[in-house]
Amino acid sequence: MTTPEPNGAQLWAALQRAEWRDLTLTLSQRNPAYWPGHMPFQWQLWDWATPKFLQKPGPYQTAWLTIDEHSGTHFDAPNHFIPAPDSGREHAGPAGLISGDQIAVDHLCGPAALIDVADIRAEGPGHSPMIEPARVREWEAAHGPLAAGDVVVFASGWDRFYEAGEPGYRYASERVVDGEGPAWPAPSVDCIDYLYDAGVRCVATDSPSMGPAQDGIPTHVAALSREMLFVEGLGSVHTLPPRGWFFLFLPIKVEGSTGSPGRAIGIVPADR
Question: What pTM does this model have?
Answer without folding.
Answer: 0.93
